[in-house]
Every structure is written in C-alpha cells, then in structure tokens.
C-alpha cells in the first residue's frame, strides 16, 4: 500500500509532476482530529491536542469558517456570567486596553476604546437604525474607495460548498453513507450477520459491497464499481477528479475529517492499535472522497464562491451606528483615512475578539477569586501535624478536594494529592478476566502487566460461578438470534423483565443494592494476590510483574511525587477512586481519568502492596526514605457517587496502625455524610429535604433512570501544585485538582517537570474536554443522553444516526436545557515555587510553554513569600 | 367473592380515578405548580392500573354501560397500558429532568395512555375511533416535543402522514360496516344476524380496509418507515410506543374477529406479516445500533402477532402483545446498560458431547408433544408446541450443557426449570382470565404447518448464509436488510446542532 504515487497534478494551472506520499498528507491532516477509543474506557482527550502549535483564536477562527463550530462561549453564556458578576468590569477593560495597544489603527485611543467597550457590553448608543436609503448612499460613497478587507480563505469540502450554495443534499447523503459503512465495519458488538470481507480492511470490504448497495442509485453504483483496488490510489484518483490543487490537498483532507470527527477519530484510534489496520484513516478518506466524487460529479465544476464584501461592509457601518454613537451621515464628512481606520477597527473587533476578551476577563476574575481564597492564608497555618494518626494519598481529581477537606477536619489526618495511577505504568487484569486494561493516562504506554490471581481451586470455582451468570446473557442471545425461539422469547422472559422493571421503578435503591449484593454473594470472589514479582514471559508480550529494581523505583517515585518521604504515620492509605452508576453508557467517564477511564483502586492496591514489601523498604531506607516498622500501607477506593471509602487491601496491621484503622472506621460515616451534603445541594433534585443523604446518594448510583448520578469533574477550573498547607481549610468548592509538591525537596526541578508532563497534561485534557463539550455541545459533546443510541458496541450516536460522539453528554455539563453548570474556563495551573523554578520549567518544557503562549492553558505561581504572579499572556 | 352490585362499581371508580389522573396531569402543566408535585402525580396515576387489576381478578363477566363495555380483555388491556404509562412516567421524573418540555411530557403521556385504554372499553365504534385517533395524535405530539430539533420534526411528520392514513382507513371501514349493519355498537354489529347482512365482497372490502389500517401502526412491511425514523424520540417515549401503541393492531383484529371468519383477506395478512417477520428479524441480525435492533425485533414480533390473528389464534395474539410490551419497554428503558463495563464477558466455550445434544433433543420433543397434546384440536397449538420445543432445546444446551462444573449445571438447571414453570403459570393465568372473552375460531392446521415450514426454511437459509459469508447471495441479502433498517436521510443529522441553539436561547 505504501507506494509513492506520482500523478499529474493541476498546480495552479501549470501541469507539473509532483512526487509525494498521500499517506504523509493523511498523517499531517489527522492532526485536526484526535483518536477516539471505545466508550467503555472513556478517557478524556483534548479535542485540539494536535493543534496547539496555533493559537486558540486561530483555531477558533478556522473551525468557525470551515465547520460553523464556535469554540468561544456564546454571547448568551457570557452575558449570563456577566450578569452574575463572574466577569468583573475592571478585567474586561484591562483586556480591552491590552488588545487595543496591539492594534495599529489611526484612531484616538479613547474613541476606539469607547466603541469597543460599548460593543462588548452591548450598550447601544443609538437605538435608531439607519434608514435604508441613508445606508445605501453611504455604502455607495464608501464602495468607491475599494477598500481591501483581507479575508481568510479556508478550504471546504465540495459537498459542503454545494450545500451552502443551493441547499443540495449531497453532503447529508455522503455523511449518512459514511456513518452506515463505518458502524458496520467497526462493529464490536458481534452482530450475528456481520459485514462480509471485514477482515480485508475498510476500503476493500466497502469496495466489494458498494456495487450492490440498494440505497445508492444505479449510475453511481456503476461508477463506484470501477474504482482502483488500493485505497491510496482511489483517494488520489478522486482528488484528481475533483481537481483539488496540490497545495490544498491537506486542507481538503482535513475538511473531510472534520465533517465526522468522531468516526474519523475512531478509525484513527484503531489504526494505532494494530499494524494490520495502520492505514485505516487513508482508507476512510478514500471511501469518503470517492463517494463524494461519485455523488457530486453531475454538479462539477462548482462555481467559485463570490463575495464582494458588501454585506460585511454594511454590517461594519451599522456597528458604528450602534456602538460608536455615530449617525449615519457622519460617514460622508470623514476623510478617507478616517473611514478606513473606523472600518478596520470594527472589522477587527469582531464577535470572536469580543468573546475572547470576555472569556479572558472571566478567567481573570476567577483567578482573582482564587487568589483571594488562597491568599487569605498569608499567615499560613504551619501548625504542621506533628504526629498524624494516618496519612491518605488521593487522586488529583477535583472530587477528592471536598472529601479531603472533610477528612482533615474530622481527625488528626494528613492528606496528599497525586495522579491516581500513582506513577505505575501498568496494564491490569482482574481475576478470571481475559481482557486487560491499560491503567494509566492515555498519553503513556503500559510497560508492566499485573494480574490478580488466586489458588487454582479457588479460581476454578470462581470461574464456574461466573460462567453460570454469564450463561444467562448468552442464553438470551442464543434464543434471540434463532428465528423460532426469538418469537417466543418475549413470552418467556416478559414476566421476569416486568418484575425487574417494577422493582427498579419503585424501589430503585434497594433493588440496585440487593441485586449487586446477590451477585457478589453468588460469585464469592476469593481473596486474591497480585503478581508483583516478575514472571518470565516471551519478548513480544508485556512482562508480568516488576523486577526488584522496578519495585523500588516505582515505590520511590510514587512517594516522591506525592511528597511523602518522611514523618510517616502508622497507617498510610493509598486511595484510588471509582464511581457507581446504573444504566449509564458514560459510567467510565466518571471513573479515574488518570487510569484510562477505570477505577484507580487496582493501582492503589499495587502501590500499597509494593510499599509493604520488606525488600522494597530496605532499599528505600538506603536511599534515605525510612519507613518505620510500625507503618503499614493499606489501599482503599473512594466511591465518588456516595463519598464512601471502601477498603480494598488491609494487610496484617501493627498495633498503632490498628488503632488508626479503628479510629478511621468511627469517623468515616460522618465524613461521608458531610461530603455528600456539600455535593448534594448542587445536583438538580426534586427532593429538597436533607434527611438521610447517604441513602439518597446511594439512590443516585443505583437508579436506572438517573442521568446525573454525580457531577463528575464538571466546574473544574484550576490545578494547584503545592503544599497542602497552601489550600488546607480553604473551601475550593470541588473545582480544584490538587497535587502535592514541595519545591524545597525538588532542587533540580525534576519532580515539577514530571508533574507538568504527566498529571498536568491529564488535567488539561479533562479541562478542555469539559470546556469543548460546553461551548460546542453538538460537535464536541455527546449530545442529549435521552436520545442517544449505543452503536457497534463502541460508542453512542444521537437520534437515528449521527457522528460517533466523543465528549461529555449534555446532562453532564448542563443543569437543565437552559442553564449551564460547567463554567467554560481554561485550566489555571498554579505552582507554588520560586519564580526561577517556573522560568526553568518553561525553558525546559517547550510543549508546555507553547500551550501557555497559545492560550491552551493558564499559569500562575506563588513564590515562597506568598506573592502571586500571573504568567498568562 | 363479589356480587354483581360490586361489579358495576369498578367502572365508576375506574373512570373517577382516570379523571383524577387526567386532571392532575393538566395541573402539572401550569408553570406555577411546583416541580416536586410530580411525585403526587405519580401517586394519582398509580390508581387506575390498580383498579383495573382488581376488576380483572374479580372477573365479573361482560358489563355494558352506555357507550362502554367492560370485560376481562378490556380490563387486562387497560391494566397493561396504564401500568406501562405509570412505569415510564416514574422513569421520566429523573430521566427528563431539566428538559425544556418536562411538564408537557407528563401531560401528554398521561392523556395519550388514558385515551388508549378507553379506546378498548368503547362499545360505541365512534368513541373507539375518536379515542384511537387521539392516541395516535398524542404519540405524534410526543415525538415532536423536541421541536427545536429538525430530525425530530421530520420523524413526527412521517408519523403523522402514516397515522392519518391508517386512521382514515379505519374510519372508512367502520363507517362502511355501520352503514351496512345499521349499528354503531360493537356488540350489535358483531351479532350473527348483523354480519349476515354483509355481502361477500363487502366483507372482503371492509376486512381489507381493516387490515391495511392495522398493519400501519404495527410497522409492518411496507409501512415500517415511521417506527424506524422515530428512534429519535427520547428513550421512554420509544418504550411507550413499542409497548403500548404498536400492538393495537392485534387488539383491533381481536375485537372484530367474527368479521374475519372466512375472509380471504386473512391470507393476505398472513403473507404480509410473514414477510415482516423475516425482514424484522433480518434487521435485528444485521443492525449494530442497539435501539435499531430493538426496532427490528418489534417489527418481527408484531408480524408474528398478526400471523396469530390470521390463524385465528386471537388469545395467543393478545398474550403475545401484552408480554411483548412489557419485555420491549424494559429493554428500551435499560438501553443504557448494553455496554456495562463492570460486567465480565468471560465465557469458556467447550466442545459439546453428543449426549447433551441427544438429551436436549429428547427433552425438546417431549415438551413439544406434551404441550401440543394439551389441546391438539386447535391448529395454532402446533406452532406453539414447535417453538416451545425449539426454545427448550436451545435453552438446555446454553444453560445446562455449557455450565461449568456441578455448580454451574445445577444453577443452569434451576433457571431452566424455574423459567419453564413461570412461563406455563403465566400462560395459564392469562388463558384462564381471557378465554371466555375472546372468540374461538377454528382455523385449519394448514396455516400452522405453513408457518412452521416458513420458520424452519428461514432458519436453514439463515444458517447457510452465515456459513457462506462471502457468497454473493449473502452480500445481496445483507445489504437489503441494512437498507430496510436504516433511517431515511431526512432523519439523519451528523451533529445535533439544536443544542447549540438551546444554549443561545437560555443562558440564564
């Protein structure tokens, strides 16, 4: 497939031979989308991860032009934030001054400022819109001057252009066809009758089928029958047929990828999974553009899009009437230069810039608020707990923050924050499972596999019990798939289903809990061990277990990262987190983002077990981390739906550790209750009573009709990297990711670098995914949960059929159809360290610097004296 | 237990609680009513199904009051429809929370299901027509409640076109029937003397109108479009649609059963329904969207229900309609669970010794023959026996033979036996409750044998096709089935852009 294609291309009118790889172009074009994995391991992705070389505004302009997608918050969202005082006027003015200073426009600063300010705040200076005749005469006058307004030209797909010109439906038809072929090809739900020839690849299978597809008309089918055998050749031929100039090919491919970014993203993801499908994205584009070519052929060549800019000019003039307090006839008395200056200002200060300034002011306002909250602790409480009874390490997740706060209030406990995979690059495999899960941030690759195992006898019994439960599902499927029994199936299973439906409808909490319990009691999962010692495996597979050096390495690294290297309490609890929800295709979106969309309990257990190994402790001791003998590591799971802490691993305890455990046992219920109480009021709920909140929280996790079992990471806004003393007793409202960091223990800055490379990227991706799902819910979000359908066992679509949806559903960012819950703010990273540290970091980490410079993240630092410095440009 | 006087109380009480439910749903529509009132509303709408259930159990025979008739069939249908309504509305409390049209959903669901249940109490055919028309209208309105969304509007348009056609044909049929027999009361129309007034061509014409009118709401080929496109509706609305509306055809045919005796239209119904069973099953097998698979399954199941009607097995058709409704509504409501990532998918397949296949076959044969012998005089019983035997064989292999170890087999056996007992018990119960109310019409066994033949042939072809996935025939059939199951292109929008508009309108 990977052949060089030499074709005659129409290069701006000149016939010339160009030698290039189409695969390279596809590869370059694929930066506009991101890989999209199956929804069962929902991992947050920044939809613009490949575009960070450009500034946020550039990307925004491009997406708006090509796809009509706006990625700045809309006017209405900003207006409501303004009304609620979340955008301070002083910051708006500050940002506006900054913007104006960068413009070279021959206009008095004050006049320009007043115009812009009025436009920003939508304060109309005049309510009389100019009469049509006045406008026309002014237009006529100005048009004489032939102003050249520079307009960017973005490449659009031909089908899109055709649709815009005369409402032709080719675009819709091509999209519909692509959705159909993609879902049939990508199906993992094992449709009984699967797409023939799937094994041969997408293009080959499609090419074989499409000549027989009754949904396409005969002449087009005939055309498609004649396509080349190889995808890249077909793609080239189609591009040639459409006469796309060479210089625009990449952009043309990009436009096609952006038409259905979800399906294209899934193809991209699959192409990264195995060598067999490595050209899948090229095949996707080949199918798509061949189809477009076949459908659009009768309409070729398309007329060039003509825009004389008259409409734009008119809107600019009106905007001066509206915001500039400038009556229409004033234009006639202005000099050419004055006219030009005014038009340029109005042109540049378009909606995009206005929204950008308001968003930045909103972000600035949040930063000021945060500074106030944290800054109030200028006389920082350094009454460091001399002897904490227990120490807890939590994930950086924003949901840990309220829980940690309540926990610390409840007793002599110390808490730490670190990424929930605890630095372990592992793939996990639970007992009796065949499937293993890469339990680490998706930007890393697993290096070690850890299995959960049990004695042979135990495993056998467990598998027998598991099989018996699974057979229920398989019997249902078998009966369903055989025609004579499928017709009887409703009569056999109807009574059982009715029982279940009635129970789930009227006793959601107890039904859910009882069925979970029954299942658990029946399965009787035996007590298990983890394969931590390295087992010899063949070279091609991941090694199972850690070598001795690795055990020490990862234990030390994890303790260093969380800043727990001295002053150990008798009991150290490593806490992973997971969520419980029912009937929710997005369940894994509520799990740990640093573990690739699964509970981080497994990783917690691995780390705690590692830290209890005598050899590891001995080696750590030699490296200066001395863990007292009486200190014991345990693992637990923070259930974020109910704010409970469930023990996963409690080894034999020392006397003091046992005391600590007992004390924790008595305080936990109160902690849970308080944490739930703080969260519960934020959920839209009918029952406003605050009795028995724990039971109500359990109901959220068990109710099959619940679309908001919890808020997940909504409203996340900041990532604070620093000592806990900085944020202790500060009410951060569950909006902050918290990572423990002590710059004094990090002289060469390597720990900070690690935090920026791993956890910060994870949090930035989560943040931008929430951001994108809020500002463009239809394009980057997953749409309304109530009208979704699961497709191909890999994801969801809206309604009858749509793009494969990638982000968070509507209900996860919205309180109601009209009210936002998540505030679309870009992540503010706050580092507690001296200025040199931050400067050094920016010098060393170019990609982070780029994110900051181009507006994909924001940065502030707090130096040892408590001075707040904003690094955002 | 109850004397006659008690019996006539049920209708009165029933209509009172229905009126309260309807009123309550209208009260909720008022924006000043607090949202938490919805819990009280659920309390009110729980009353009608309870009354219907009590009336069903007291089994007081047929009562005729004014334009209404009350018998165990109508009580059962009312109980069924209103229970589905109750469950779905309970589900909507949380599920639709925050929806712009939140209140309207409850009002429309309540009113639609109320008129639907009253339709089956109507003895006066004009009332029946009115109620059934109102039900279809209500359903269309429910689909179009997301009116900001272009595709939802298109789907509602498709539905309204087909529903209008269906209702129009039904009206025509009923008016014609009333003209000829000079009666508007169902009980008067269906007397032997009234029916005797019908000329043979009149009977054919009227029954033909009836059949076309009922296959449309049952989404039978070639009228399946509306059900395929209405996947856009929110999940609970689909649940109501697939449980309570699509099976109306079976009910209407049952109510007018005597009219169909000896009508050649039965054969037509049989043919079209058989095609629908095959197409529906095919859609289910090739589709990869979960809700679309369910749609395919509904088309097939409704086809089967109509085949039962064509064979004169009205009792079986009603039982099938009711149990299918409960089954399908549950599957819709839990459609979010298909990808349960906490459930293990481990499944050890092992070679199957012949002895298990043998015991399975013997068992299947015994159960089939045993079931047939309980009433061999009914032609349809043969079909039931055949399908039961077939299911017994598959369930035996899956549940018992594939079980691992002793524990697995015992568990499988318990489920197998338990499932069987419940199946027989529920059938017995429904049979007993309905047997007097539903006309028994002897049908020739030829139809039963034909349908068994079709099922067997289709299964064999299906198995052959799966084994020859690369054959041309497979390709052609596969693509046709995909095409049958796909939505119309007007029903597709690559991104639901109406959400963007919602944010722009709101933003409080």
Short synopsis of the structure:
The complex is a heterodimer of chains A (873) and B (508). With 873 residues, chain A is α/β, with parallel strands linked by helices. Mean pLDDT of chain A is 90; it is low at 1-18.
Sheet of most strands of chain A: 5 strands, mixed
The radius of gyration over CA of chain B amounts to 24 Å
Identify the most extensive interface between protein chains. Answer: A-B, 128 and 134 residues
| Cα end-to-end separation of chain A | 46 Å
- Strand percentage of chain B, roughly? under 5%
Shape of chain B: globular
Structural class by SSE content of chain A:
alpha/beta
Give the proportion of residues in helices of chain A. Answer: 40-55%
What series of H and E elements makes up the topology of chain B? HHHEEHHHHHHHHHHHHHHHHHHH
- Indicate the multimeric state: heterodimer
Record the strand order, biggest sheet of chain A. 4-3-9-10-11
GO molecular function, one term (chain B): oxidoreductase activity
Membrane topology (chain B): Multi-pass membrane protein
Main location (chain B): membrane
Protein name (chain B): Probable inorganic carbon transporter subunit DabB
Written description of the protein model:
Chain B: This is Probable inorganic carbon transporter subunit DabB. Chain B: It is found in: Cell membrane; Membrane. The complex is a heterodimer of chains A (873) and B (508). Chain A contains 31 helices and 20 strands. Chain A is α/β, with parallel strands linked by helices and 873 residues long. In chain A, the strands form 6 sheets. In chain A, strands 4-3-9-10-11 form a 5-stranded mixed beta sheet, sandwiched between helices. A 5-stranded mixed beta sheet of chain A has the order 13-12-18-19-20, with helices on both faces. In chain A, helix 1 crosses helix 12 (249-259). By secondary structure, chain B is an all-alpha fold. Chain B has helices at residues 4-29, 38-45, 47-58, 72-95, 102-119, 125-143, 150-181, 186-189, 192-196, 200-215, 225-229, 235-245, 248-255, 265-286, 290-310, 314-333, 354-374, 381-401, 405-434, 445-467, 472-485, 498-505; strands at residues 63-65, 68-70. In chain B, helix 1 (4-29) runs antiparallel to helix 2 and helix 4 runs antiparallel to helix 5. At the A-B interface, helix 3, helix 8, helix 19, helix 20 and strand 14 of A face helix 4, helix 7, helix 14, helix 15 and helix 16 of B.
């Amino acid at each position: 497939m990977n052949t060089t294609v030499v074709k005659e291309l129409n290069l701006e009118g000149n016939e010339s031979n160009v030698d290039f790889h189409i695969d390279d172009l596809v590869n370059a074009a694929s930066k506009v989308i991101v890989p999209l994995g199956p929804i069962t391991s929902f991992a947050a992705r920044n939809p613009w991860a490949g575009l960070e070389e450009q500034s946020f505004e550039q990307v925004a302009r491009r997406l708006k032009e090509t796809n009509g997608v706006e990625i700045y918050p809309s006017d209405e969202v900003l207006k409501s934030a303004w009304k609620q005082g979340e955008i301070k006027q002083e910051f708006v003015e500050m940002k506006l001054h900054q913007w104006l200073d960068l413009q070279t426009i021959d206009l008095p600063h004050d006049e320009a400022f007043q115009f812009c300010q009025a436009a920003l705040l939508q304060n109309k200076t005049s309510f009389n819109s100019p009469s049509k005749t006045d406008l026309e005469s002014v237009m006529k006058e100005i048009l004489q001057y032939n102003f050249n307004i520079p307009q960017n030209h973005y490449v659009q797909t031909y089908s899109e252009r055709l649709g815009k010109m005369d409402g032709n439906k080719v675009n819709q038809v091509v999209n519909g066809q692509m959705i159909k072929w993609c879902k049939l090809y990508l199906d993992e739900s094992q449709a009984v009758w699967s797409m023939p020839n799937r094994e041969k690849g997408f293009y080959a299978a499609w090419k074989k089928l499409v000549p027989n597809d009754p949904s396409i008309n005969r002449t087009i089918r005939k055309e498609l029958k004649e396509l080349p055998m190889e995808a890249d050749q077909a793609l080239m031929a189609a591009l040639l047929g459409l006469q796309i100039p060479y210089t625009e090919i990449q952009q043309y491919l990009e436009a096609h990828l952006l038409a259905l970014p979800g399906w294209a993203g899934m193809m991209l993801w699959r192409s990264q999974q195995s060598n067999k499908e490595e050209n899948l994205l090229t095949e996707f584009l080949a199918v798509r553009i061949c189809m477009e070519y076949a459908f659009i052929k009768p309409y070729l060549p398309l007329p060039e899009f003509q825009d004389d800019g008259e409409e734009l000019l008119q809107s600019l003039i009106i905007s001066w009437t509206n915001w500039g307090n400038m009556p229409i006839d004033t234009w006639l008395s202005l000099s050419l230069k004055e006219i030009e200056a005014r038009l340029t200002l109005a042109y540049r200060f378009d909606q995009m810039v206005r929204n950008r300034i308001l968003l930045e002011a909103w972000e600035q306002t949040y930063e000021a608020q945060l500074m106030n909250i944290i800054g109030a602790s200028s006389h920082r409480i350094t009454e460091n707990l001399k002897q904490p009874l227990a120490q807890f390490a939590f994930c950086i997740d924003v949901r840990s923050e309220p829980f940690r706060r309540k926990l610390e209030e409840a007793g002599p406990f110390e808490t730490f924050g670190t990424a929930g995979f605890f630095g372990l690059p592992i793939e996990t495999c639970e007992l009796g499972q065949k499937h293993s899960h890469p339990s680490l941030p998706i930007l890393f690759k697993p290096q070690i596999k850890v299995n959960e195992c049990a004695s042979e006898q135990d495993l056998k019994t467990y598998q027998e019990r598991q099989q018996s439960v699974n057979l229920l599902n398989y019997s249902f499927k078998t009966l369903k798939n055989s025609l004579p029994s499928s017709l009887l199936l409703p009569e056999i299973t109807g009574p059982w289903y009715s029982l279940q439906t009635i129970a789930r409808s009227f006793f959601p909490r107890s039904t859910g809990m009882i069925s979970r319990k029954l299942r658990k009691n029946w399965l009787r999962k035996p007590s298990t061990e983890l394969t931590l010692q390295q087992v010899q495996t063949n070279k091609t597979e991941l090694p199972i277990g850690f070598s001795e050096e690795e055990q020490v390495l990862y234990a030390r690294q994890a303790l260093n990262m969380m800043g727990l290297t001295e002053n150990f309490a008798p009991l150290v609890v490593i806490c992973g987190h997971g969520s419980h929800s029912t009937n929710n295709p997005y369940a894994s979106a509520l799990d740990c983002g640093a573990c690739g969309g699964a509970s981080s309990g497994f990783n917690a257990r691995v780390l705690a077990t590692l830290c209890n190994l005598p050899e590891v402790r001995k080696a750590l001791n030699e490296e200066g981390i001395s863990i007292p003998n009486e200190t014991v590591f345990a693992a637990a799971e923070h259930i974020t739906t109910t704010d409970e802490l469930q023990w996963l691993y409690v080894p034999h305890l020392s006397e003091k550790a046992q005391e600590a455990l007992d004390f924790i046992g008595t305080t936990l219920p109160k902690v849970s209750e308080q944490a739930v109480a703080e969260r519960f009021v934020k959920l839209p709920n009918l029952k406003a009573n605050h009795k028995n909140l724990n039971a109500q929280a359990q109901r959220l996790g068990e109710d099959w009709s619940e679309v908001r079992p919890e808020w997940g990471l909504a409203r996340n806004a900041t990532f604070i990297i620093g000592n806990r003393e900085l944020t202790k007793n500060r009410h951060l409202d569950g909006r902050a990711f918290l990572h423990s960091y002590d710059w004094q223990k990090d002289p060469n800055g390597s720990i900070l670098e690690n935090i920026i490379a791993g956890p910060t990227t994870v949090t930035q991706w989560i943040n931008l995914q929430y951001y994108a799902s809020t500002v463009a819910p239809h394009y980057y979000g997953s749409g309304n949960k109530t009208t979704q359908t699961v497709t191909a066992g890999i994801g969801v679509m809206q309604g009858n059929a749509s793009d494969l949806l990638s982000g968070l559903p509507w209900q996860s960012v919205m309180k109601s159809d009209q009210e936002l819950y998540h505030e679309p703010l870009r992540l503010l990273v706050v580092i507690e360290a001296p200025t040199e540290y931050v400067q050094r970091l920016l010098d060393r980490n170019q990609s982070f610097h780029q994110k900051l410079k181009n507006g994909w993240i924001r940065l502030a630092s707090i130096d040892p004296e408590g001075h707040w410095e904003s690094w955002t440009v | 237990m109850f004397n006659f006087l008690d019996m006539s109380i049920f209708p009165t009480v029933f209509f009172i609680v229905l009126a309260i439910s309807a009123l309550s749903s209208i009260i909720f529509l008022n924006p000043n009513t607090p949202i938490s009132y919805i819990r009280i509303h659920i309390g009110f709408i729980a009353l009608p199904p309870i009354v219907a259930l009590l009336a069903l159990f007291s089994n007081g025979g047929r009562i005729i009051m004014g334009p209404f008739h009350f018998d165990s069939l109508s009580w059962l249908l009312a109980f069924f429809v209103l229970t589905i309504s109750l469950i779905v509305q309970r589900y909507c409390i949380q599920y639709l929370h925050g929806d712009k049209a939140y209140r309207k959903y409850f009002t429309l669901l309540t009113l639609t299901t109320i008129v639907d249940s009253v339709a089956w109490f109507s003895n006066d055919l004009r009332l029946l027509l009115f109620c059934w028309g109102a039900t279809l209208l209500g359903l269309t309105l429910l689909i179009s409640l997301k009116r900001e969304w272009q595709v939802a509007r298109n789907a509602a348009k498709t539905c309204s076109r087909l529903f209008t056609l269906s209702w129009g044909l039904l009206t025509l049929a009923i008016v014609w029937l009333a003209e000829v027999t000079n009666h508007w009361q169902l009980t008067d129309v269906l007397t032997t003397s009234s029916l005797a007034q019908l000329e043979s061509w009149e009977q054919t014409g009227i029954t033909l109108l009836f059949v076309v009118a009922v296959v449309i709401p049952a989404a039978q080929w070639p009228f399946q479009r509306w059900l395929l496109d209405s996947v856009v509706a929110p999940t609970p609305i689909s649940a109501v649609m697939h449980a309570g509306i699509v099976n109306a055809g079976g009910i209407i045919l049952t109510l007018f059963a005597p009219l169909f005796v000896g009508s050649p239209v039965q054969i037509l119904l049989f043919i079209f329904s058989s095609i629908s069973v095959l197409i529906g099953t095919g859609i289910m097998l090739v589709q990869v969207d979960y809700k679309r698979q369910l749609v395919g399954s509904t088309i097939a199941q409704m086809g089967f229900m109509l085949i039962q009607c064509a064979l004169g097995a009205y009792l079986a058709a009603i039982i099938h309609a009711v149990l299918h409704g409960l089954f399908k509504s549950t599957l819709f409501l839990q459609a979010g669970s298909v990808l349960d990532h906490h459930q293990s998918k481990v499944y050890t397949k092992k070679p199957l010794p012949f002895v298990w296949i043998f015991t399975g076959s013997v068992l299947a044969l015994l159960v089939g023959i045993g079931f047939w012998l309980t009433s061999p005089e009914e032609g349809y019983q043969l079909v039931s026996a055949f399908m039961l035997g077939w299911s017994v064989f598959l369930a035996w292999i899956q549940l018992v033979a594939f079980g691992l170890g002793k524990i697995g087999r015992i568990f499988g056996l318990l489920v197998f036996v338990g499932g069987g007992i419940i199946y027989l018990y529920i059938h017995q119960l429904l049979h007993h409750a309905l047997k007097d109310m539903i006309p028994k019409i002897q049908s020739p066994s030829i139809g039963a044998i034909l349908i068994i033949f079709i099922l067997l042939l289709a299964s064999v072809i299906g198995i052959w096709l799966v084994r020859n996935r690369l054959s041309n025939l497979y390709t052609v059939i596969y693509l046709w089935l995909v095409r049958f199951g796909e939505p119309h292109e007007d029903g597709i929008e690559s991104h639901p852009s109406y959400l963007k508009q919602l944010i722009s309108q709101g933003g409080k």
